[in-house]
Specification:
Layout lengths: L1 H12 L4 H24 L11 H35 L3 H4 L5 H26 L7 H20 L6 H32 L3 H5 L1 H4 L3
Helix pairs in contact: 1-2, 2-3, 2-7, 3-5, 3-7, 5-6, 6-7
This protein binds protoporphyrin IX containing FE.
Length: about 210
């Protein structure tokens, strides 16, 4: 955390140097992950879930996609900061000529939505029990809505802050579901319940 505080200072001193903003953002997410890990490790009772190898792999991939989307988003933010310096607070001009990063960022949200939608579907149909997947999807919907608000309705009040905060919450919940999933695998392995690990579909006859 001391490193992050020092990095925050250098980000500001460097006049919001782009790659430093990105490292600062990624470091913030590492700290979020670390705190969630400590909270999870100190828990004494756990809800029961069905561990599913495919869900686990795809969830890891979804977290990776979120990280890419966050890095792309910070590149868009960098462009917006430059526009603020150039044209001032005329919000309608901030994304008048966006860089390629913006279009990639906007399109990438379709993949983020699709993959997490698939995870939610699998979680529900196989009754895996990861209820926080509903919150993940809710965050993604709000993230897309705030993104749309910024681009198509010229950055309404609070839209930038909400977009940033919800992205952090999204990553946090996904990471927490991963911790739950990982714990279920370890627990299941200890109980030698190989069948459930390898094939939840068998269990419900799909
Ligand atoms: C899952 C979907 C999304 C995620 C996780 C995400 C995440 C992010 C993040 C972390 C930032 C950096 C914010 C900052 O540093 O202040 C950002 C910036 C931005 N994103 Fe997204 N985003 C998503 C979807 C979208 C969509 C669909 C749009 C547009 C239609 C959009 C438009 C923007 C814009 C305009 C910025 C610059 C914000 C600013 O100036 O503060 N995003 N995004």
């Amino acid at each position: 955390m001391a490193f992050q505080a020092w990095l925050g200072k250098t980000v500001v001193d460097s006049n919001l140097s782009p790659y430093k903003i990105t490292i600062h953002m990624v470091m913030a997410l590492v700290i979020v992950a670390f705190i969630l890990y400590i909270i999870f490790a100190s828990k004494i009772s756990f809800k029961a879930h069905i561990p599913d190898a495919t869900f686990k792999k795809m969830l890891l991939f979804a977290i990776f996609l979120t990280l890419i989307q966050v890095v792309l988003g910070t590149q868009v933010r960098e462009h917006v900061d430059e526009q603020v310096k150039a044209v001032g607070y005329v919000k309608s001009l901030w994304l008048q000529n966006p860089t390629l990063h913006f279009y990639v960022h906007r399109t990438f949200s379709i993949f983020v939505f699709g993959l997490n939608g698939w995870l939610l579907f699998r979680n529900r149909t196989l009754q895996l029990g990861y209820r926080k997947m509903d919150l993940v999807m809710l965050c993604i919907v709000f993230e897309i809505l705030t993104g749309i608000a910024m681009y198509y309705f010229d950055f309404p009040f609070l839209s930038q802050t909400l977009h940033l905060v919800i992205a952090t919450i999204l990553f946090g919940i996904q990471f927490y579901v991963y911790l739950e999933n990982r714990k279920d695998f370890i627990h299941n392995h200890a109980n030698n319940s190989e069948e459930i690990v390898s094939s939840p579909t068998k269990k419900i006859g799909l």
